[in-house]
Amino acid sequence: MMLTMERGRVMRFAAVFAAALAVSACASKNPNDLSGAAGQATPGSPQDFVVNVGDRVLFTVDSTELTPQATATLDKQSQWLNRYSQYKITIEGNADERGTREYNLALGARRANVVRNYLVSRGVAATRIKTISYGKERPVAVCDDESCWSQNRRAVTVLNGAGS
User: Fold this and answer.
1) Is the predicted pLDDT of residue 33 greater than 60, yes or no?
2) CA distance 41 to 102
3) Do the beta carbons of residue 131 and residue 112 sit within 8 Å?
4) What number of CA atoms fall less than 13 Å from residue 16's CA on the CB side?
5) CA separation for the pair 52, 46 (Å, rounded)
6) Strand order across the 129-135 sheet
């Protein structure tokens, strides 16, 4: 008798559990609800800055001149940074692997300063901006041809978090 009652409880629990699984599997979602979708960035978040604005600009060989594509990215950065003024930033200047360490550190510093000056000219407060040069020490692509070198000649704007 006791064994039969226990078996009945287990069977009822299994039936309720199976029903709950079936209901959750059939639940429909609003197709317009993208809140959990991959790639969705909350406006004003660091992810929004990287995904929707762009956090880096590229340079040609031995150059610190901003290309039209770079200025377009920096214009978007300045608009975003002026809108979300709680962030301080660091601009990281980088170079490709060719050249001496000292030369590339100086080149990275010049690239970071060019980007800094451009952002300041577009209204971003200079007090919010730090610069640093990594020279050739932090490549994003490692190979021995232009496809990698071109990715490493860059300045990256990094959000340091909300300031006080």
Assistant:
1) no
2) 38
3) yes
4) 6
5) 10
6) 56-58, 154-162, 87-94, 129-135
